[in-house]
Structure prediction request, 24 residues.
Amino acid sequence: MTLPSYQMSIPVAVQELAPVPSEC
Prediction:
């Protein structure tokens, strides 16, 4: 299954886009 593989890529991309959304 490639569920955990893609699920791990999701949070990584989100952190790269907005690592500190609280500052915004």
